[in-house]
Amino acid sequence: MAAHRDGRGTEHVDAVVVGSGFGGSVAAYRLAQAGLSVVVLERGRAYPPGSFPRSPAEMKRAFWDPHQGLQGLFDVWRFNGFSSVVSSGLGGGSLIYANVLLRKDERWFVRDDPLPGGGYETWPITRADLDPHYDAVEAMLTPAPYPFREPAYSVTPKTAELREAAAKLHLKFELPPLAVSFAPAPGAPPGLGLPIAPAEYGNVHGLPRQTCRLCGECDIGCNDGAKNTLDHTYLSAAAHHDADIRTRCEVRAIRRGLSGGYEVSYVHHDPSYEGHKVAPGTLPQRHITCDRLILAAGTYGTTLLLLRSRAELPGLSDALGTRFCGNGDLLTFLLPGRGAAPALLRASRGPVITAAVRVSDGADGGEGRGYYVQDGGYPAFVDWLAEYSGGGRVRLLLRAADFAIRWLYAQTTRSADTGLSSAISGLLSDGTLSSGSLPLLGMGRDIPDGVMRLRDGRLDVRWSTRTSMEYFQRVRATMRAIADELGASYIDNPVWFSWFVRRIITVHPLGGAPMGDGPHEGVCDANGEVFDHPDLYVLDGAAMPGPVGPNPSLTIAAFADRACTRMLERVPA
Protein backbone atom coordinates (compact mmCIF):
# COMPACT_ATOMS: atom_id res chain seq x y z
CA MET A 1 0.00 0.00 0.00
CA ALA A 2 1.23 3.48 -0.84
CA ALA A 3 1.56 6.47 1.47
CA HIS A 4 -0.98 9.29 1.29
CA ARG A 5 -1.17 12.92 2.41
CA ASP A 6 -3.03 13.95 5.55
CA GLY A 7 -5.08 17.11 5.97
CA ARG A 8 -1.92 19.22 6.41
CA GLY A 9 -0.30 17.78 3.32
CA THR A 10 2.13 15.71 5.36
CA GLU A 11 2.92 12.23 4.11
CA HIS A 12 1.11 9.57 6.16
CA VAL A 13 1.53 5.77 6.31
CA ASP A 14 0.33 2.92 8.47
CA ALA A 15 3.82 2.27 9.87
CA VAL A 16 7.23 3.89 9.89
CA VAL A 17 10.20 1.67 10.70
CA VAL A 18 13.35 3.47 11.85
CA GLY A 19 16.38 1.36 11.01
CA SER A 20 16.87 -1.77 8.92
CA GLY A 21 18.70 -4.17 11.24
CA PHE A 22 17.45 -7.40 12.75
CA GLY A 23 14.42 -5.77 14.35
CA GLY A 24 13.54 -3.24 11.67
CA SER A 25 13.84 -5.54 8.67
CA VAL A 26 11.63 -8.19 10.29
CA ALA A 27 9.01 -5.56 11.14
CA ALA A 28 9.12 -4.09 7.63
CA TYR A 29 8.49 -7.48 6.07
CA ARG A 30 5.79 -8.65 8.47
CA LEU A 31 3.79 -5.42 8.27
CA ALA A 32 4.12 -5.01 4.50
CA GLN A 33 3.19 -8.65 3.98
CA ALA A 34 0.02 -7.99 5.99
CA GLY A 35 -0.95 -5.22 3.58
CA LEU A 36 0.02 -2.17 5.65
CA SER A 37 1.70 0.81 4.05
CA VAL A 38 5.26 0.82 5.40
CA VAL A 39 8.15 3.26 5.08
CA VAL A 40 11.63 2.19 6.23
CA LEU A 41 14.03 5.00 7.09
CA GLU A 42 17.66 3.85 7.05
CA ARG A 43 20.41 6.42 7.62
CA GLY A 44 23.07 4.53 5.66
CA ARG A 45 23.26 3.60 2.01
CA ALA A 46 22.72 0.32 0.22
CA TYR A 47 25.67 -2.04 -0.30
CA PRO A 48 25.14 -4.33 -3.28
CA PRO A 49 27.62 -7.18 -3.83
CA GLY A 50 30.95 -5.77 -4.95
CA SER A 51 30.47 -2.35 -3.31
CA PHE A 52 32.04 -2.93 0.10
CA PRO A 53 35.31 -1.03 0.62
CA ARG A 54 38.60 -2.85 0.18
CA SER A 55 41.34 -0.43 -0.86
CA PRO A 56 43.04 1.85 1.71
CA ALA A 57 41.41 4.88 0.09
CA GLU A 58 37.98 3.26 0.28
CA MET A 59 38.51 2.18 3.88
CA LYS A 60 39.50 5.72 4.85
CA ARG A 61 36.03 6.87 3.76
CA ALA A 62 34.19 3.85 5.18
CA PHE A 63 33.19 5.44 8.50
CA TRP A 64 30.03 7.19 9.63
CA ASP A 65 30.24 10.84 10.64
CA PRO A 66 28.10 12.87 8.21
CA HIS A 67 29.03 16.18 9.84
CA GLN A 68 32.59 15.45 8.73
CA GLY A 69 31.54 14.31 5.27
CA LEU A 70 31.71 10.60 6.06
CA GLN A 71 28.73 8.43 5.11
CA GLY A 72 30.38 5.03 5.35
CA LEU A 73 29.65 1.63 6.84
CA PHE A 74 31.38 1.60 10.24
CA ASP A 75 30.12 3.70 13.13
CA VAL A 76 32.60 3.69 16.01
CA TRP A 77 31.44 4.88 19.44
CA ARG A 78 33.83 5.58 22.29
CA PHE A 79 32.68 5.80 25.89
CA ASN A 80 34.34 5.76 29.29
CA GLY A 81 35.69 2.22 29.72
CA PHE A 82 34.73 0.71 26.38
CA SER A 83 34.37 1.26 22.67
CA SER A 84 31.82 -0.11 20.25
CA VAL A 85 31.48 -0.72 16.52
CA VAL A 86 28.07 -0.80 14.82
CA SER A 87 26.91 -0.56 11.23
CA SER A 88 25.34 2.13 9.09
CA GLY A 89 23.80 0.71 5.94
CA LEU A 90 20.80 -1.07 4.47
CA GLY A 91 20.68 -4.29 6.45
CA GLY A 92 22.09 -2.81 9.65
CA GLY A 93 24.39 -5.00 11.70
CA SER A 94 23.92 -7.97 9.39
CA LEU A 95 26.32 -6.29 6.96
CA ILE A 96 29.27 -6.64 9.35
CA TYR A 97 28.30 -9.43 11.76
CA ALA A 98 29.83 -12.90 11.74
CA ASN A 99 26.64 -14.71 10.70
CA VAL A 100 26.02 -16.78 13.86
CA LEU A 101 22.35 -17.49 14.62
CA LEU A 102 22.13 -19.19 18.01
CA ARG A 103 19.01 -19.30 20.16
CA LYS A 104 19.20 -17.88 23.65
CA ASP A 105 19.63 -20.71 26.13
CA GLU A 106 16.34 -21.64 27.78
CA ARG A 107 17.53 -21.15 31.36
CA TRP A 108 19.25 -17.88 30.55
CA PHE A 109 15.84 -16.18 30.34
CA VAL A 110 16.28 -15.35 34.02
CA ARG A 111 13.76 -13.70 36.32
CA ASP A 112 14.60 -11.65 39.38
CA ASP A 113 18.32 -12.31 39.04
CA PRO A 114 19.92 -9.87 41.54
CA LEU A 115 22.30 -7.24 40.21
CA PRO A 116 25.16 -5.55 42.05
CA GLY A 117 24.00 -2.17 43.30
CA GLY A 118 20.35 -3.21 43.42
CA GLY A 119 17.65 -4.24 41.01
CA TYR A 120 17.16 -7.44 39.05
CA GLU A 121 17.69 -8.79 35.58
CA THR A 122 14.23 -9.98 34.56
CA TRP A 123 13.11 -11.32 31.18
CA PRO A 124 9.31 -11.05 30.77
CA ILE A 125 9.44 -13.58 27.91
CA THR A 126 10.62 -17.17 27.82
CA ARG A 127 12.31 -19.47 25.34
CA ALA A 128 8.92 -21.12 24.72
CA ASP A 129 7.48 -17.71 23.79
CA LEU A 130 10.20 -17.20 21.18
CA ASP A 131 10.65 -20.71 19.78
CA PRO A 132 8.02 -20.44 17.00
CA HIS A 133 9.49 -17.08 16.03
CA TYR A 134 13.01 -18.47 16.04
CA ASP A 135 11.63 -21.00 13.56
CA ALA A 136 10.18 -18.26 11.37
CA VAL A 137 13.40 -16.25 11.27
CA GLU A 138 15.48 -19.32 10.50
CA ALA A 139 13.13 -20.17 7.63
CA MET A 140 13.89 -16.77 6.09
CA LEU A 141 17.64 -16.58 6.80
CA THR A 142 18.26 -20.32 6.14
CA PRO A 143 21.23 -20.79 8.47
CA ALA A 144 23.37 -23.91 8.20
CA PRO A 145 26.37 -25.18 10.14
CA TYR A 146 29.76 -24.88 8.53
CA PRO A 147 30.06 -27.94 6.20
CA PHE A 148 33.31 -29.00 7.79
CA ARG A 149 33.17 -32.61 6.61
CA GLU A 150 32.96 -31.65 2.92
CA PRO A 151 36.33 -31.81 1.09
CA ALA A 152 36.48 -28.14 0.11
CA TYR A 153 35.83 -27.07 3.70
CA SER A 154 37.74 -29.64 5.73
CA VAL A 155 40.97 -27.69 5.16
CA THR A 156 39.96 -25.12 7.78
CA PRO A 157 42.51 -25.82 10.52
CA LYS A 158 41.08 -23.43 13.10
CA THR A 159 37.83 -25.45 13.21
CA ALA A 160 39.60 -28.77 13.70
CA GLU A 161 42.02 -27.40 16.28
CA LEU A 162 39.28 -25.79 18.38
CA ARG A 163 37.30 -29.05 18.29
CA GLU A 164 40.30 -31.03 19.50
CA ALA A 165 41.12 -28.51 22.23
CA ALA A 166 37.50 -28.57 23.42
CA ALA A 167 37.53 -32.36 23.58
CA LYS A 168 40.69 -32.41 25.69
CA LEU A 169 39.26 -29.77 28.02
CA HIS A 170 35.86 -31.52 28.21
CA LEU A 171 34.07 -28.49 26.83
CA LYS A 172 30.92 -28.59 24.74
CA PHE A 173 31.84 -28.00 21.08
CA GLU A 174 29.41 -27.15 18.28
CA LEU A 175 29.24 -25.90 14.72
CA PRO A 176 26.70 -23.09 15.14
CA PRO A 177 24.15 -22.21 12.46
CA LEU A 178 25.56 -19.58 10.08
CA ALA A 179 23.48 -17.32 7.83
CA VAL A 180 25.79 -18.04 4.90
CA SER A 181 25.06 -19.71 1.57
CA PHE A 182 27.52 -22.55 1.20
CA ALA A 183 25.29 -24.24 -1.38
CA PRO A 184 23.64 -22.62 -4.42
CA ALA A 185 20.16 -23.75 -3.34
CA PRO A 186 18.53 -25.52 -0.37
CA GLY A 187 19.37 -29.20 -0.47
CA ALA A 188 22.12 -28.79 -3.07
CA PRO A 189 25.70 -29.85 -2.30
CA PRO A 190 27.98 -27.04 -1.11
CA GLY A 191 30.62 -25.55 -3.36
CA LEU A 192 32.89 -22.52 -3.52
CA GLY A 193 31.87 -19.50 -5.59
CA LEU A 194 28.77 -21.04 -7.19
CA PRO A 195 25.84 -18.89 -8.43
CA ILE A 196 23.09 -18.68 -5.81
CA ALA A 197 19.56 -19.34 -7.03
CA PRO A 198 17.46 -16.15 -6.73
CA ALA A 199 14.71 -16.04 -4.11
CA GLU A 200 11.11 -15.96 -5.25
CA TYR A 201 10.71 -12.45 -3.84
CA GLY A 202 13.66 -11.11 -5.83
CA ASN A 203 16.48 -8.94 -4.55
CA VAL A 204 16.58 -5.20 -3.89
CA HIS A 205 20.03 -4.97 -5.48
CA GLY A 206 19.18 -6.82 -8.68
CA LEU A 207 22.65 -8.37 -8.82
CA PRO A 208 23.83 -12.00 -8.78
CA ARG A 209 25.21 -13.63 -5.66
CA GLN A 210 27.65 -16.51 -5.24
CA THR A 211 28.39 -19.00 -2.48
CA CYS A 212 31.01 -18.50 0.19
CA ARG A 213 34.64 -18.57 -1.01
CA LEU A 214 36.09 -18.83 2.52
CA CYS A 215 37.80 -15.43 2.17
CA GLY A 216 37.26 -14.34 5.80
CA GLU A 217 35.75 -10.97 4.82
CA CYS A 218 32.40 -11.38 6.62
CA ASP A 219 32.99 -8.56 9.10
CA ILE A 220 33.93 -5.96 6.48
CA GLY A 221 31.05 -6.74 4.13
CA CYS A 222 30.65 -9.71 1.79
CA ASN A 223 31.31 -8.64 -1.78
CA ASP A 224 30.11 -12.02 -3.08
CA GLY A 225 26.66 -11.77 -1.55
CA ALA A 226 27.26 -15.13 0.14
CA LYS A 227 26.00 -13.86 3.50
CA ASN A 228 22.23 -14.11 3.84
CA THR A 229 22.12 -10.55 5.10
CA LEU A 230 18.88 -8.69 5.72
CA ASP A 231 19.03 -6.74 2.47
CA HIS A 232 19.08 -10.01 0.51
CA THR A 233 16.31 -11.57 2.61
CA TYR A 234 13.84 -9.69 4.80
CA LEU A 235 14.22 -6.30 3.11
CA SER A 236 13.97 -7.77 -0.38
CA ALA A 237 10.82 -9.62 0.73
CA ALA A 238 9.46 -6.39 2.27
CA ALA A 239 10.09 -4.50 -0.97
CA HIS A 240 8.33 -7.29 -2.86
CA HIS A 241 5.28 -6.50 -0.70
CA ASP A 242 5.56 -2.78 -1.55
CA ALA A 243 7.41 -1.51 1.51
CA ASP A 244 8.98 1.85 0.68
CA ILE A 245 12.65 1.52 1.68
CA ARG A 246 14.49 4.83 1.87
CA THR A 247 18.25 4.92 2.37
CA ARG A 248 20.39 7.87 3.55
CA CYS A 249 17.44 9.02 5.68
CA GLU A 250 18.41 9.70 9.30
CA VAL A 251 15.65 10.28 11.85
CA ARG A 252 16.28 13.29 14.08
CA ALA A 253 13.08 13.61 16.12
CA ILE A 254 9.88 11.77 17.01
CA ARG A 255 6.74 13.11 18.70
CA ARG A 256 3.08 12.35 19.23
CA GLY A 257 0.90 13.36 16.30
CA LEU A 258 -1.67 16.13 16.65
CA SER A 259 -4.52 13.73 15.91
CA GLY A 260 -2.99 10.51 17.21
CA GLY A 261 -0.20 8.36 15.96
CA TYR A 262 3.32 9.74 15.61
CA GLU A 263 5.28 12.26 13.61
CA VAL A 264 8.81 11.56 12.49
CA SER A 265 11.33 14.19 11.36
CA TYR A 266 14.35 13.12 9.33
CA VAL A 267 17.08 14.46 7.07
CA HIS A 268 18.44 13.11 3.81
CA HIS A 269 22.21 12.65 3.47
CA ASP A 270 22.70 13.41 -0.19
CA PRO A 271 25.69 11.61 -1.77
CA SER A 272 26.99 14.99 -2.95
CA TYR A 273 27.69 15.86 0.72
CA GLU A 274 30.30 13.11 1.03
CA GLY A 275 33.76 14.54 1.56
CA HIS A 276 32.38 17.88 2.75
CA LYS A 277 31.73 19.06 6.28
CA VAL A 278 28.07 19.67 7.05
CA ALA A 279 27.28 21.92 9.99
CA PRO A 280 24.70 20.50 12.44
CA GLY A 281 21.19 21.77 11.78
CA THR A 282 21.82 22.87 8.20
CA LEU A 283 20.08 19.96 6.44
CA PRO A 284 16.38 20.56 5.77
CA GLN A 285 14.05 18.32 7.74
CA ARG A 286 11.36 16.19 6.17
CA HIS A 287 8.29 14.95 8.01
CA ILE A 288 6.10 11.87 7.88
CA THR A 289 3.27 10.74 10.14
CA CYS A 290 2.17 7.21 10.94
CA ASP A 291 -0.27 5.17 12.98
CA ARG A 292 2.50 2.89 14.27
CA LEU A 293 6.11 3.80 14.88
CA ILE A 294 8.74 1.07 15.19
CA LEU A 295 12.10 2.12 16.60
CA ALA A 296 14.85 -0.22 15.43
CA ALA A 297 17.82 2.09 15.03
CA GLY A 298 20.04 -0.09 17.19
CA THR A 299 20.79 0.09 20.89
CA TYR A 300 22.52 3.46 20.62
CA GLY A 301 20.27 5.01 17.97
CA THR A 302 16.96 4.01 19.54
CA THR A 303 17.95 4.96 23.09
CA LEU A 304 19.34 8.30 21.91
CA LEU A 305 16.10 9.09 20.06
CA LEU A 306 14.00 8.31 23.13
CA LEU A 307 16.25 10.28 25.47
CA ARG A 308 16.01 13.29 23.19
CA SER A 309 12.23 12.88 22.95
CA ARG A 310 11.32 12.91 26.65
CA ALA A 311 9.56 16.27 26.33
CA GLU A 312 7.58 15.17 23.27
CA LEU A 313 6.75 11.78 24.78
CA PRO A 314 5.78 12.59 28.37
CA GLY A 315 5.50 9.67 30.74
CA LEU A 316 8.40 7.61 29.43
CA SER A 317 9.56 5.21 32.12
CA ASP A 318 12.40 6.13 34.42
CA ALA A 319 13.96 2.86 33.26
CA LEU A 320 14.94 4.61 30.02
CA GLY A 321 18.70 4.41 29.69
CA THR A 322 19.13 1.46 32.06
CA ARG A 323 20.19 -2.19 31.73
CA PHE A 324 23.00 -1.51 29.27
CA CYS A 325 25.60 -4.23 28.70
CA GLY A 326 27.99 -5.45 26.01
CA ASN A 327 26.70 -9.04 25.94
CA GLY A 328 29.92 -10.15 27.59
CA ASP A 329 32.04 -9.41 24.51
CA LEU A 330 35.74 -10.11 24.92
CA LEU A 331 38.32 -10.25 22.14
CA THR A 332 41.70 -11.94 22.69
CA PHE A 333 44.39 -13.44 20.45
CA LEU A 334 46.37 -16.63 20.15
CA LEU A 335 49.86 -16.29 18.67
CA PRO A 336 52.45 -18.90 17.75
CA GLY A 337 54.01 -20.21 20.93
CA ARG A 338 57.67 -20.74 21.72
CA GLY A 339 59.23 -24.17 21.81
CA ALA A 340 56.92 -26.74 20.27
CA ALA A 341 55.71 -26.15 16.73
CA PRO A 342 52.45 -24.19 16.90
CA ALA A 343 49.27 -25.39 15.26
CA LEU A 344 48.66 -23.92 11.81
CA LEU A 345 45.35 -22.20 12.48
CA ARG A 346 44.99 -20.13 9.28
CA ALA A 347 42.39 -17.72 10.66
CA SER A 348 41.97 -16.16 7.22
CA ARG A 349 40.57 -19.41 5.81
CA GLY A 350 36.80 -19.78 6.10
CA PRO A 351 34.00 -17.54 7.32
CA VAL A 352 34.92 -15.41 10.33
CA ILE A 353 33.30 -17.82 12.80
CA THR A 354 32.95 -21.54 12.18
CA ALA A 355 32.80 -23.11 15.65
CA ALA A 356 31.84 -22.42 19.25
CA VAL A 357 32.54 -23.75 22.73
CA ARG A 358 29.82 -23.32 25.33
CA VAL A 359 30.47 -23.06 29.08
CA SER A 360 27.42 -23.64 31.28
CA ASP A 361 25.80 -21.08 33.54
CA GLY A 362 24.91 -21.52 37.20
CA ALA A 363 21.29 -21.62 36.02
CA ASP A 364 21.93 -24.79 34.02
CA GLY A 365 24.38 -26.76 36.12
CA GLY A 366 27.57 -24.75 35.76
CA GLU A 367 29.26 -22.17 37.93
CA GLY A 368 28.95 -18.42 37.64
CA ARG A 369 27.65 -16.82 34.48
CA GLY A 370 27.68 -18.81 31.24
CA TYR A 371 29.45 -17.88 28.03
CA TYR A 372 30.56 -18.92 24.57
CA VAL A 373 34.03 -18.87 23.04
CA GLN A 374 34.16 -18.80 19.26
CA ASP A 375 36.98 -18.93 16.73
CA GLY A 376 37.63 -15.65 14.98
CA GLY A 377 38.88 -14.84 11.54
CA TYR A 378 39.95 -12.05 9.26
CA PRO A 379 40.47 -11.33 5.55
CA ALA A 380 43.43 -12.96 3.84
CA PHE A 381 45.13 -9.61 3.20
CA VAL A 382 45.46 -9.16 6.97
CA ASP A 383 47.97 -12.04 6.91
CA TRP A 384 50.43 -9.64 5.30
CA LEU A 385 49.78 -7.00 7.98
CA ALA A 386 50.33 -9.59 10.70
CA GLU A 387 53.66 -10.66 9.29
CA TYR A 388 55.03 -7.12 9.07
CA SER A 389 53.72 -5.58 12.28
CA GLY A 390 55.24 -5.56 15.74
CA GLY A 391 58.28 -7.83 15.94
CA GLY A 392 57.72 -8.75 12.31
CA ARG A 393 58.91 -5.28 11.33
CA VAL A 394 62.32 -5.94 12.86
CA ARG A 395 62.69 -9.20 10.95
CA LEU A 396 61.57 -7.46 7.77
CA LEU A 397 64.23 -4.75 8.22
CA LEU A 398 66.94 -7.36 8.69
CA ARG A 399 65.87 -9.22 5.57
CA ALA A 400 65.63 -5.95 3.64
CA ALA A 401 69.14 -5.02 4.74
CA ASP A 402 70.43 -8.38 3.52
CA PHE A 403 68.70 -7.84 0.19
CA ALA A 404 70.13 -4.32 -0.15
CA ILE A 405 73.70 -5.55 0.51
CA ARG A 406 73.35 -8.26 -2.13
CA TRP A 407 71.90 -5.80 -4.64
CA LEU A 408 74.66 -3.24 -4.03
CA TYR A 409 77.28 -5.97 -4.38
CA ALA A 410 75.79 -6.97 -7.72
CA GLN A 411 75.82 -3.35 -8.91
CA THR A 412 79.44 -2.68 -7.94
CA THR A 413 80.95 -5.99 -9.08
CA ARG A 414 78.60 -6.54 -12.02
CA SER A 415 78.55 -10.16 -10.96
CA ALA A 416 76.35 -12.48 -12.97
CA ASP A 417 75.76 -14.71 -9.94
CA THR A 418 74.40 -12.74 -7.04
CA GLY A 419 71.70 -15.01 -5.67
CA LEU A 420 69.08 -12.26 -5.83
CA SER A 421 66.27 -14.76 -6.33
CA SER A 422 66.92 -16.25 -2.91
CA ALA A 423 67.35 -12.76 -1.48
CA ILE A 424 63.97 -11.68 -2.83
CA SER A 425 62.47 -14.87 -1.45
CA GLY A 426 64.13 -14.05 1.86
CA LEU A 427 62.29 -10.72 1.96
CA LEU A 428 59.09 -12.68 2.44
CA SER A 429 58.18 -14.25 5.76
CA ASP A 430 57.53 -17.97 6.14
CA GLY A 431 54.04 -17.09 7.39
CA THR A 432 54.48 -18.57 10.85
CA LEU A 433 52.95 -15.58 12.60
CA SER A 434 49.86 -15.26 10.43
CA SER A 435 49.21 -18.97 9.93
CA GLY A 436 49.57 -19.67 13.65
CA SER A 437 47.48 -16.74 14.91
CA LEU A 438 43.82 -16.83 15.85
CA PRO A 439 41.43 -14.30 17.39
CA LEU A 440 39.11 -15.73 20.04
CA LEU A 441 35.71 -14.16 20.63
CA GLY A 442 33.98 -14.47 23.98
CA MET A 443 30.40 -13.49 24.76
CA GLY A 444 27.93 -14.33 27.48
CA ARG A 445 26.07 -13.20 30.57
CA ASP A 446 27.86 -10.11 31.83
CA ILE A 447 26.18 -7.69 34.26
CA PRO A 448 23.58 -5.34 32.69
CA ASP A 449 24.11 -2.42 35.03
CA GLY A 450 25.20 0.28 32.57
CA VAL A 451 23.35 3.59 32.37
CA MET A 452 22.81 5.66 29.21
CA ARG A 453 22.15 9.37 29.55
CA LEU A 454 22.38 12.60 27.57
CA ARG A 455 25.41 14.77 28.16
CA ASP A 456 25.48 18.07 26.26
CA GLY A 457 23.00 16.58 23.82
CA ARG A 458 25.17 13.53 23.11
CA LEU A 459 24.85 9.96 24.27
CA ASP A 460 26.93 9.09 27.32
CA VAL A 461 27.16 5.55 28.67
CA ARG A 462 28.39 4.75 32.16
CA TRP A 463 29.38 1.11 32.31
CA SER A 464 32.54 -0.69 33.29
CA THR A 465 33.91 -4.21 33.53
CA ARG A 466 34.30 -3.91 37.30
CA THR A 467 31.06 -5.60 38.34
CA SER A 468 31.51 -8.22 35.60
CA MET A 469 35.16 -8.93 36.43
CA GLU A 470 34.51 -12.44 37.77
CA TYR A 471 32.73 -13.29 34.50
CA PHE A 472 35.52 -11.86 32.33
CA GLN A 473 38.20 -13.68 34.29
CA ARG A 474 36.41 -16.99 33.74
CA VAL A 475 36.21 -16.34 30.00
CA ARG A 476 39.91 -15.47 29.91
CA ALA A 477 40.77 -18.64 31.84
CA THR A 478 38.99 -20.79 29.25
CA MET A 479 40.72 -18.96 26.43
CA ARG A 480 44.11 -19.48 28.10
CA ALA A 481 43.36 -23.19 28.48
CA ILE A 482 42.54 -23.41 24.77
CA ALA A 483 45.80 -21.61 23.95
CA ASP A 484 47.75 -24.09 26.07
CA GLU A 485 46.16 -27.06 24.30
CA LEU A 486 47.05 -25.55 20.93
CA GLY A 487 50.65 -24.78 21.91
CA ALA A 488 49.93 -21.10 21.36
CA SER A 489 50.69 -17.95 23.31
CA TYR A 490 47.71 -16.13 24.74
CA ILE A 491 47.50 -12.33 24.72
CA ASP A 492 44.71 -10.07 25.87
CA ASN A 493 43.39 -7.36 23.65
CA PRO A 494 45.92 -4.56 24.34
CA VAL A 495 43.13 -2.11 25.20
CA TRP A 496 41.73 -4.53 27.78
CA PHE A 497 44.67 -5.26 29.99
CA SER A 498 46.80 -2.31 31.00
CA TRP A 499 47.96 -0.77 34.22
CA PHE A 500 45.80 2.31 33.79
CA VAL A 501 42.52 1.15 32.33
CA ARG A 502 40.63 -1.93 31.30
CA ARG A 503 38.57 -1.35 28.18
CA ILE A 504 36.58 -3.73 26.05
CA ILE A 505 35.36 -3.50 22.50
CA THR A 506 31.77 -4.61 22.02
CA VAL A 507 29.91 -5.24 18.81
CA HIS A 508 26.81 -6.40 20.70
CA PRO A 509 25.56 -3.41 22.75
CA LEU A 510 22.22 -4.16 24.41
CA GLY A 511 19.71 -2.38 26.63
CA GLY A 512 18.75 1.23 27.17
CA ALA A 513 15.03 0.78 26.55
CA PRO A 514 14.55 -2.61 28.24
CA MET A 515 11.38 -4.65 28.25
CA GLY A 516 9.84 -5.35 31.63
CA ASP A 517 6.70 -6.41 33.46
CA GLY A 518 5.73 -2.79 34.01
CA PRO A 519 7.04 0.79 33.75
CA HIS A 520 8.70 0.42 37.15
CA GLU A 521 11.31 -1.89 35.59
CA GLY A 522 11.09 -1.41 31.82
CA VAL A 523 10.44 1.01 28.98
CA CYS A 524 8.41 -1.42 26.90
CA ASP A 525 6.42 -4.59 27.52
CA ALA A 526 7.10 -8.14 26.36
CA ASN A 527 5.71 -7.18 22.94
CA GLY A 528 8.05 -4.21 22.56
CA GLU A 529 5.25 -1.65 23.00
CA VAL A 530 6.31 1.38 25.02
CA PHE A 531 4.37 1.76 28.26
CA ASP A 532 1.76 4.57 28.12
CA HIS A 533 2.48 5.17 24.42
CA PRO A 534 0.25 2.92 22.35
CA ASP A 535 1.59 1.86 18.94
CA LEU A 536 5.13 2.99 19.71
CA TYR A 537 7.48 0.01 19.66
CA VAL A 538 11.11 -0.74 20.46
CA LEU A 539 12.16 -3.75 18.39
CA ASP A 540 15.93 -3.96 18.51
CA GLY A 541 18.78 -4.59 20.92
CA ALA A 542 17.72 -1.65 23.09
CA ALA A 543 14.73 -3.72 24.29
CA MET A 544 16.88 -6.51 25.70
CA PRO A 545 16.78 -6.34 29.56
CA GLY A 546 20.13 -8.09 29.88
CA PRO A 547 22.69 -10.06 27.92
CA VAL A 548 21.39 -12.59 25.42
CA GLY A 549 24.50 -14.69 25.98
CA PRO A 550 25.15 -16.10 22.53
CA ASN A 551 25.27 -13.81 19.50
CA PRO A 552 22.07 -11.75 19.97
CA SER A 553 20.96 -11.24 16.35
CA LEU A 554 18.60 -14.21 16.14
CA THR A 555 16.94 -13.40 19.47
CA ILE A 556 16.38 -9.76 18.45
CA ALA A 557 14.82 -10.89 15.16
CA ALA A 558 12.61 -13.48 16.87
CA PHE A 559 11.51 -10.90 19.46
CA ALA A 560 10.56 -8.53 16.61
CA ASP A 561 8.67 -11.29 14.79
CA ARG A 562 6.70 -12.10 17.93
CA ALA A 563 5.93 -8.43 18.52
CA CYS A 564 4.65 -8.07 14.94
CA THR A 565 2.36 -11.05 15.40
CA ARG A 566 0.82 -9.38 18.46
CA MET A 567 0.69 -6.03 16.65
CA LEU A 568 -1.13 -7.46 13.63
CA GLU A 569 -3.66 -9.18 15.84
CA ARG A 570 -4.92 -5.68 16.70
CA VAL A 571 -5.14 -4.44 13.10
CA PRO A 572 -8.78 -4.18 11.97
CA ALA A 573 -9.70 -6.76 9.35
**Total number of beta strands:** 25
Distance between the termini: 15 Å
| Morphology call | globular
SSE-based structural type: alpha+beta
Biggest beta sheet attributes: 8 strands, mixed
Stretches with pLDDT under 50, minimum 5 residues: 386-394, 414-434, 497-501
Mean pLDDT comes to 89
Number of helices: 13
Quaternary structure annotation: single chain
Q: Specify Rg, calculated over alpha carbons.
A: 25 Å
Fraction of residues in helix: 10-25%
Q: Beta fraction of the residues?
A: 15-25%
EC number: 1.1.3.6, 5.3.3.1
Family: Belongs to the GMC oxidoreductase family.
Pathway: Steroid metabolism; cholesterol degradation
Protein name: Cholesterol oxidase
Could you walk me through the main structural features you see in this protein, from its secondary elements to its overall organization?
The protein has 573 residues and is an alpha+beta fold. It contains 13 helices and 25 strands. Strands 1, 2, 3, 13, 14, 15, 16 and 25 form an eight-stranded mixed sheet that branches. A six-stranded antiparallel sheet has the order 11-18-19-20-17-23. Helix 1 packs parallel to helix 13 (553-569) and helix 3 packs across helix 13 (553-569). The radius of gyration is 25 Å and the shape is globular. This is Cholesterol oxidase. Its EC number is 1.1.3.6, 5.3.3.1.
Task: Tell me briefly what this model is.
The chain has 573 residues and is α+β, with helices and mostly antiparallel strands.
